[in-house]
Amino acid sequence: MTAREWPNILITGTPGTGKTTHAALLVEALQQAPETSAAPWQHLNVGDFVKEKGCHQGWNDEWQSWDVDEDKLLDELELVQGQGAKVLDWHTCDIFPERWIDLVVVLRCDHAKLWERLEKRGYKLNKIEENNEAEIMEVVLADARESYAEEVVVELRSESPEEMEENVGRILQWVHGWRANNADDSDDEA
């Protein structure tokens, strides 16, 4: 078990599956719930963090994204993730050390709905096609299952506001369970 008082949660999935919205709603719910409101919950949108901290090697016009310097990103994130109570959201998960992450939530979406969402964002056709193919082939889910212990990876559908609300509720329940299990472990060690 971890020595952190609060867990770190990674919300991941193909672009357009609702990671940022889920993370923001989850942090809001965690800050309002009496059992978890004492923690310094923070939503870390890793894409924004990359820009803010300069963890990139420049802009890639072809893919409309930053070329991430993974070593610098991990160095910067090492400084903030240690105390826990972080909800990270990013389109990939396999670069984060297992010891940082207590729950990996992989959001999934029907590929036709995903295509529509990415079109609305103004993505170029090559980026829409690549992301749609990644969703169909379950690339992010496979990466999560290869990178983390089976018991910390959960796959959730993200196609409607109702599913989003249910997902946030499930994760909130998981945090309560995590806290109870860690409190029991620390009591046993005393």
UniProtKB/TrEMBL annotation:
<keyword id="KW-0963">Cytoplasm</keyword>
<keyword id="KW-0547">Nucleotide-binding</keyword>
<keyword id="KW-0698">rRNA processing</keyword>
<comment type="similarity">
    <text>Belongs to the adenylate kinase family. AK6 subfamily.</text>
</comment>
<protein>
    <recommendedName>
        <fullName>Adenylate kinase isoenzyme 6 homolog</fullName>
        <ecNumber>2.7.4.3</ecNumber>
    </recommendedName>
</protein>
<keyword id="KW-0690">Ribosome biogenesis</keyword>
<dbReference type="GO" id="GO:0006364">
    <property type="term" value="P:rRNA processing"/>
</dbReference>
<dbReference type="GO" id="GO:0004017">
    <property type="term" value="F:AMP kinase activity"/>
</dbReference>
<feature type="binding site">
    <location>
        <position position="121"/>
    </location>
    <ligand>
        <name>ATP</name>
    </ligand>
</feature>
<keyword id="KW-0808">Transferase</keyword>
<keyword id="KW-0418">Kinase</keyword>
<feature type="binding site">
    <location>
        <position position="19"/>
    </location>
    <ligand>
        <name>ATP</name>
    </ligand>
</feature>
<feature type="region of interest" description="NMPbind">
    <location>
        <begin position="45"/>
        <end position="68"/>
    </location>
</feature>
<comment type="subunit">
    <text>Interacts with small ribosomal subunit protein uS11. Not a structural component of 43S pre-ribosomes, but transiently interacts with them by binding to uS11.</text>
</comment>
<dbReference type="GO" id="GO:0005737">
    <property type="term" value="C:cytoplasm"/>
</dbReference>
<feature type="binding site">
    <location>
        <position position="21"/>
    </location>
    <ligand>
        <name>ATP</name>
    </ligand>
</feature>
<dbReference type="GO" id="GO:0005524">
    <property type="term" value="F:ATP binding"/>
</dbReference>
<dbReference type="GO" id="GO:0042274">
    <property type="term" value="P:ribosomal small subunit biogenesis"/>
</dbReference>
<feature type="region of interest" description="LID">
    <location>
        <begin position="120"/>
        <end position="130"/>
    </location>
</feature>
<keyword id="KW-0067">ATP-binding</keyword>
<dbReference type="InterPro" id="IPR027417">
    <property type="entry name" value="P-loop_NTPase"/>
</dbReference>
<feature type="binding site">
    <location>
        <position position="18"/>
    </location>
    <ligand>
        <name>ATP</name>
    </ligand>
</feature>
<dbReference type="GO" id="GO:0016887">
    <property type="term" value="F:ATP hydrolysis activity"/>
</dbReference>
<dbReference type="Pfam" id="PF13238">
    <property type="entry name" value="AAA_18"/>
</dbReference>
<comment type="function">
    <text>Broad-specificity nucleoside monophosphate (NMP) kinase that catalyzes the reversible transfer of the terminal phosphate group between nucleoside triphosphates and monophosphates. Has also ATPase activity. Involved in the late cytoplasmic maturation steps of the 40S ribosomal particles, specifically 18S rRNA maturation. While NMP activity is not required for ribosome maturation, ATPase activity is. Associates transiently with small ribosomal subunit protein uS11. ATP hydrolysis breaks the interaction with uS11.</text>
</comment>
<dbReference type="InterPro" id="IPR020618">
    <property type="entry name" value="Adenyl_kinase_AK6"/>
</dbReference>
<dbReference type="GO" id="GO:0005634">
    <property type="term" value="C:nucleus"/>
</dbReference>
<keyword id="KW-0539">Nucleus</keyword>
<feature type="binding site">
    <location>
        <position position="20"/>
    </location>
    <ligand>
        <name>ATP</name>
    </ligand>
</feature>
<feature type="binding site">
    <location>
        <position position="16"/>
    </location>
    <ligand>
        <name>ATP</name>
    </ligand>
</feature>
